[in-house]
Amino acid sequence: MGIAKNAPGVDGKLDDWRSAQWADIDKRGTRANFDSNSKPYDVTAAVCVSGDRFFAAFRTGDKDLLKNSGDTPNAPFKTGGALDVMLDAGAGGMRLLVTLVAGQPRALLYRAVVPGTREPVAFSSPWAHNQDRSRR
Asked: If 0-12 CB within 10 Å is exposed, 13-18 middle and 19+ buried, where does residue 71 land?
């Protein structure tokens, strides 16, 4: 959709996204054999801007894609599924995570740089930690 004259409805339906260009997010996983119920991941997304609003839509066949334990409230990307939108909006960018904890939606906006912050929150990545170990 790119830049849309009319904002898409925020109703869980994708009717307003028919003309969108969908991007593959995750197509890996296990393909089903003739007698198997396993399915490969099939997650796609589209984005658009309407006026001063940014919209994103995601498609998947996995009803539990967003299921998350919420055990780490400031880092839900570590404890289960989430929709993750990363934007480079200057001054370090932003990351928006949307997930479901106990069936309730939660959203968390990370900003790499927030002017006036006295005590920034430190983040660590298990991937980076494992990479450092492999170099020793």
From this structure: exposed
